[in-house]
Design a protein that fits this description.
It is built from six helices and six strands. By secondary structure, the chain is of the alpha/beta class. The chain has one domain: Rossmann fold (3-Layer(aba) Sandwich). Helix 4 links the parallel strand 4 and strand 5.
């Protein structure tokens, strides 16, 4: 699809839904903005029934859900994922915005450092180092996510 054709597409929220702690928040914000939200996962989960809410269950290989999310990406997409490598792929595919479930945006300026840090941590773990994981998901994270998602959709609605 050429870039001009993408300008006429509707805004779409894409969610890497496996183990996503903010699925309900995604639905809430998407419905408030009248935006279609697509949850892509490897397994079934319950989600609100609404014409704007879509669930895609992708069987198959390990990265099948990630591949499907990237297939949906356009310049009018906002993507929600905690997967740094998927975030990198979505940015490369032209997503308008990519957010982590804590509301942290992944940008062209920040993704390189995030990928490098992920790689270093993986190497440390592979070498037997005891490194901590992410902090537990909190109410403040949820609040930051709601605000960041709302802002990303408003920016896309106003500026395309």
């Amino acid at each position: 699809m050429n870039p001009i054709d993408q300008d006429i597409l509707p805004i779409r929220l894409l969610v890497d839904a496996d183990a996503c702690p903010v699925r309900e928040e995604c639905v809430k914000v998407a419905l408030r903005h009248g935006v279609k939200v697509t949850f892509v996962s490897n397994s079934f989960f319950r989600i609100e029934s609404d014409p704007l809410v879509e669930r895609e269950i992708v069987p198959g290989k390990f990265d099948a859900a990630d591949d499907r999310v990237v297939e949906h990406v356009t310049r009018r997409s906002v993507v929600v994922t905690a997967d740094i490598l998927l975030a990198e792929r979505c940015l490369a595919a032209g997503a308008s915005a990519v957010l982590g479930p804590t509301g942290k945006p992944f940008t062209a300026d920040s993704i390189g450092m995030a990928v490098a840090t992920r790689s270093i941590m993986a190497d440390l773990r592979a070498g037997g180092a005891q490194v901590g994981g992410p902090a537990p998901f909190s109410k403040a994270d949820r609040s930051r996510f709601l605000s960041a998602l709302d802002l990303a959709l408003v920016r896309l609605e106003r500026h395309g």
